[in-house]
Specification:
This protein has 268 residues and is of the alpha/beta class. It has 2 domains: 59 residues, Arc Repressor Mutant, subunit A (Orthogonal Bundle); 193 residues, Rossmann fold (3-Layer(aba) Sandwich). It has 10 helices and 17 strands. Helix 5 packs across helix 6 and helix 8 runs parallel beside helix 9.
Length: 268
């Protein structure tokens, strides 16, 4: 006769203890895998899967394919790292994202390119696309586009932010109000389901909002380290974005949650 599944009410003290330790491990490590937990606790993978299913029902973790993630694991960011530091982070992932982003560009389009180390990498893949118009507030993006493409390049005016390497303020925002571009490729300092896109700099947040408003399509270039992070200043809800290009570090749970909002997720 088939035995009913164990529930929280009939679990043994040993099971309660193991499940508590699993929750602690999830929050300590950021994620856990079924096979690792089975080996650690010297139980079967079926037992661990039952543990994870019950803990998810109790709201103590989130199930992921092959393991689990913590709930409410959004990290707070407080400042924008310097350009030199950012350019050395997650380099391989950024290159893959940049390559995939360039494949989204059509001949003759008008592009609005945000400041960011992934966006400048993308420009280097646009040399074979002709008839483009590229609008940007990023000094390095403008220089790269001029050097590696035959695009018409328009630089937004304004005061140059030292940390961002881009023009900011009312002059740049006023120029954006007079534009209607085909495709915005946007960077983000932080993003999560609850707060959407966010930043730590109010001027950067304002210029990103202005970029979104004047664009017909928005593609977010974001390596997975930016996900489940939040800054003080909200930029826009996730639904302002049509496509997110990210790397394989994003969990299946997060990807599915984003896709449920009607947003295309491209994983590279």
């Amino acid at each position: 006769m088939k035995q009913p599944k164990s529930t929280a009410s009939d679990a043994s003290p040993m099971t309660f203890q193991r499940r508590g330790q699993i929750v602690d491990l999830v929050h300590e490590r950021g994620s856990v895998r079924v096979n690792d937990l089975a080996a650690r606790f010297n139980v079967s993978e079926v037992t661990i899967r039952n543990d994870l299913d019950q803990l998810e029902k109790e709201g103590r973790l989130l199930r992921d394919r092959g393991g689990a993630l913590p709930t409410g694991n959004t990290r707070t960011v407080t400042a924008l790292p310097g350009m030199e530091h950012r350019s050395g982070l997650n380099v391989d992932a950024k290159r893959r994202i940049a390559t995939a982003a360039a494949e989204k560009v059509n001949l003759g389009e008008s592009l609005l390119l945000d400041a960011g180390t992934t966006v400048v990498e993308m420009v280097r893949h646009l040399g074979k696309q002709h008839g483009l118009t590229i609008v940007t507030n990023a000094l390095n993006v403008a220089l790269a586009a001029t050097a590696s493409t035959d695009a018409r390049v328009l630089m937004l005016g304004g005061a140059v932010g030292r940390d961002s390497g881009s023009t900011l303020g009312s002059m740049a925002e006023e120029m954006l109000r007079s534009l209607a571009v085909d495709h915005l490729f946007l960077g983000a300092q932080a993003a999560d389901l609850e707060h959407g896109l966010s930043d730590t700099n109010i001027e950067i947040a304002q210029i990103k909002r202005a970029m979104i408003r004047c664009s017909r399509r928005v593609t977010l270039l974001m390596d997975s380290s930016k996900w489940d992070t939040s800054g003080l200043i909200r930029v826009a809800p996730l639904t302002a974005v049509h496509t997110i290009i990210t790397d394989s570090g994003m969990s299946d749970v997060a990807r599915q949650a984003i896709e449920n909002l009607g947003i295309e997720v491209v994983v590279v």
